[in-house]
Design goal:
The structure holds 2 protein chains of 2 kinds. Chain A is an alpha+beta fold. Chain A is built from 1 helix and 21 strands. The N terminus of chain A is likely disordered. The chains are: A alpha+beta, B mainly alpha. At the A-B interface, β14 and α1 of A face α8, α9 and α20 of B. Chain B: It comes from Phasianus colchicus (Common pheasant).
Chain lengths: 289, 501
């Protein structure tokens, strides 16, 4: 099965990455070399457990005519001698079984132009949380770390005290810390009866076959007064608004009543004058008759 | 409220002035009622982790809130019938505030169900119905515009609440956010304070007696004259006996008008809407998951919903203006049925949309259709039932819709899980809505014809009784035998007595 990733275009070059998983525990990574010589290509590869890996760099078709002077594979400063060479690709095979074998492997192709690719072989990264978890004094907080794609062997939690990192042992302080280990891919650290000192940076460390990886989490402890201030401010604003609305209503009602009383007074005056006119005309008519 | 000199009808609602302030209040109130349950979904992940529950247990909070908001409709109607809109909305705002503040101190998921789901949901129900009702009291000629503007509160509030909730959550955690949201919900009380009570009779009598002609005044005067004359007193006594018999039914109907179930228009609306709501909300719930399913990233998927909300925001007042035009207003029921069918067609065509561009086009049309339907949702009911019976009608309709609203998304979810494909859910929603639209179209055609026939009959009857009324007018004037002077004095008395009310 060959999976072709999406076409990535950055600064005008195309990179095509072929991932071939023909057998379990054997992976191949191949990077297609680009057209710009001063752009350095980097690729991160995460290894959850020991694997046999083949890394190769291949020239794109449009450069296949280019004369190749030299191809070198290096790990750090050390040159790797066994290179599997085909017409247009150069690869190396590695058995990554221990932490020492992880690192950065560079493939440099020198011809008319020089291209280089760096493969970073590393343990899977644990994503912490950038935004702090906010909790309150006396309440409890839960910090969660997970590693879905790669299953770690074990999890350890650390708390930062000053500049030191202290491991959290939940069996020692049962009423303060509870670590949930139900699922191997996820770890929960529940901290009870929070106080201000519990705030700060926490680390969850996942142990993999090839090494350890840490995720960072921040815990912020607030007192109840903190949200209470905006709460009271908003309540005060609401009360003021309602009072203003009712006062305005009473005022406009009074104005209305006064205006109507005046109108009514005028109307009655008008009617009275009409009436007197009418009576006069009647009597006039009577007299006439 | 002083009568508006340029407002249309002589006998009827103001159609302007303070009415627009009421629309603003309704905008806020309705906005909270519809947007709040969706807005607090941001907190769910954190609460889920905190209490260690599954996602479906958290989703119950929203469902309970929605169910209570719609199910408590009749309670709202009864209270409005008894006390008017203003006290009910203020009470609703207080309940919402209390609910959220107590939710901030909850220690279990069940307590959250009660505080957030039940109490806040009840408060929102007491906000939603009275806001819609009071628009019907303040507007007649410009009612569709007023309704469209007020209903636009929902998308605007949603767009405001989403980033606000995120900000509150980042700074105060979920408990602090609930506390502050409780205070924010108290603004519903402010909206309620703006709902100045208005009695339709009071306005009409005032305008008649002060501004209009003397024929109407004569009617008032003749009424008083009849009452003053002793021969007619016996006639009044027999009348009261008959009234007592009907009192019992009328008493119940005064609180919640069950006689609406004999009203043809109401039944048509009820059946059509209950059917429509089966497919109304599910596509919104599943739009983002569907986008992610076909390979679109999370932010673009969320952006689709933003597009929907923005188009919705514009579509609602625009629909109100269109519905108010002289071509559409008399046939507003057809316009409503058309927009439901249009909505259904959008869903049916959605599976054909490929890629992100296709989904964006779908979101635009969906937002348009959704806004059109929502803007006219209550306007059409008011149009069918009339402003006075609308209070009870809205309560009965919402409790009936409650069931299908709650069933819609879970049925859609089951379809997706069974077939593993979203297209069947869209087809189901589309089909249900097209069916509902067609049903409403046909039945309203029938209803319009029947109404025209009844109107003809009534006019014929009026023609017959007119000469009798003319005789009645002059008789009491001759009977009293006191001349123009006393008539005019009685006129002044009538004006003054009605003002006391």
């Amino acid at each position: 099965m060959i999976l072709l990733g999406p076409d990535l275009t950055t600064a005008g070059f195309n990179e095509e990455i072929n991932l071939n998983k023909s057998k379990a525990l054997y992976v191949e990574y191949e990077v297609l070399l680009p057209g710009e010589s001063d752009v350095h290509v980097e690729k991160n590869i995460f290894l959850g457990s020991a694997v046999k890996i083949e890394l190769s760099c291949r020239l794109a078709d449009k450069h296949s005519h280019m004369k190749i002077l030299q191809v070198t594979w290096k790990k750090g400063n050390e040159t790797i001698k066994h290179i599997n060479k085909t017409e247009i690709s150069w690869g190396i095979q590695l058995t990554v079984s221990e932490n020492r074998k992880l690192g950065s492997y560079t493939c440099t192709v020198t011809g008319e132009k020089e291209f280089s690719v760096v493969f970073h072989l590393q343990v899977p990264q644990i994503a912490g949380r950038e935004k702090p978890v906010v909790s309150y004094k006396g309440d409890s907080a839960i910090l969660i770390c997970e590693s879905r794609s790669y299953t770690p062997i074990a999890w350890t939690w650390y708390m930062t005290n000053g500049s030191e990192q202290i491991a959290i042992n939940d069996s020692l302080m049962l009423d303060k810390y509870v670590i949930d280990k139900a699922d191997a891919n996820v770890t929960h650290l529940k901290i009870l009866k929070l106080t201000e000192e519990d705030g700060g940076t926490y680390w969850c460390e996942a142990a993999f076959e090839l090494g350890k990886s840490k995720g960072k989490l921040k815990l912020k402890i607030l007192s109840l007064m903190v949200p209470l201030k905006p709460f009271l401010a908003i309540v005060a604003e609401v009360v003021i608004l309602i009072t203003l609305i009712f006062v305005f209503e009473l005022y406009s009602k009074k104005k209305e009543k006064r205006a109507e009383d005046e109108k009514e007074f005028d109307q009655i005056e008008q009617l009275k004058s009409e009436e007197s006119n009418g009576v006069e005309s009647n009597s006039a008519r009577h007299r006439k008759v | 409220m002083p009568p508006h000199s340029d407002a249309g009808p002589v006998a009827g609602p103001p159609d302007g002035g303070w009415g627009w302030v009421v629309v603003f209040g309704a905008f806020i109130s309705i906005g909270f009622a519809y947007a709040f349950p969706k807005g607090i979904a941001i907190f769910y992940k954190e609460i889920q982790d905190f209490f260690g529950t599954s996602y479906s247990e958290i989703a119950w909070v929203s469902s309970i809130m929605l169910a209570t908001t719609y199910g408590a409709g009749p309670i709202s109607s009864i209270l409005v019938n008894r006390y008017g809109s203003r006290p009910v909305v203020i009470l609703g705002g207080l309940l919402c505030g209390i609910g959220m503040v107590s939710a901030a101190f909850c220690t279990s998921i069940v307590q959250l169900y009660i505080c957030v789901g039940f109490i806040t949901g009840l408060g929102l129900a007491l906000n939603l119905q009275p806001s819609v009702i009071i628009i019907g009291r303040y507007f007649l000629k410009r009612r569709p515009i007023a309704n469209g503007l007020a209903m636009a509160g929902s998308p605007v509030m949603l767009c405001t609440l989403a980033p606000l909730n995120q900000f509150l959550f980042d700074n105060y955690g979920w408990r602090g956010s609930f506390l502050i949201l409780g205070a924010i919900l108290l603004h519903c009380c402010v909206a309620g304070a703006l709902f100045r009570p208005i009695s339709a009779d009071k306005v009409s009598v005032k305008t008649q007696s002060i501004e209009e002609g003397k024929e109407v005044l004569k009617e008032e005067v003749t009424k008083d004259a009849i009452e003053m004359n002793s021969p007619t007193n016996i006639h009044m006594e027999t009348k009261t006996e008959e009234e007592e018999e009907r009192d019992c039914c009328e008493k119940v109907n005064k609180y919640l008008d069950f006689s609406l179930f004999k009203h043809r228009g109401f039944l048509i609306y009820l059946i059509g809407n209950v059917l429509m709501f089966l497919g109304f909300f599910a596509p919104i719930v599943f739009l983002a998951p569907y986008a992610k399913h076909i390979g679109i990233d999370e932010y673009s998927a969320a952006f689709l919903l933003s597009i929907l909300a923005i188009v919705d925001m514009v579509a609602r007042p625009t629909t109100g203006i269109i519905a108010n035009s002289k071509w559409v207003r008399p046939r507003i029921q057809y316009f409503f049925s058309f927009s439901i069918a249009f909505n259904g067609t959008c869903h049916l065509l959605c599976p054909l949309a490929s890629g992100y561009t296709g989904l964006v086009i779908y979101s635009v049309f969906f937002g348009l259709a959704f806004g059109m339907v929502c803007a006219m949702l209550f306007e059409t009911l008011m149009d069918l039932v009339g402003a006075s019976r609308f209070t009870s009608a809205v309560g009965l309709v919402t409790i009936a819709e409650c069931c299908t609203i709650l069933l819609g998304p879970p049925i859609g979810g089951t379809l997706i899980d069974t077939f593993g494909d979203y297209k069947y859910m869209f087809i189901k929603c589309g089909a249900v809505m097209v069916l509902a639209g067609t049903f409403l179209f046909i039945m309203n055609y029938y209803n319009y014809r029947m109404l025209a026939k009844e109107e003809k009959k009534r006019k014929a009857k009026e023609e017959d009784t007119k000469p009798q009324m003319a005789q009645m007018k002059f008789k009491p004037v001759l009977l009293s035998g006191q001349g123009i002077t006393s008539t005019l004095l009685m006129l002044a008395l009538a004006v003054k007595s009605h003002q006391i009310f």
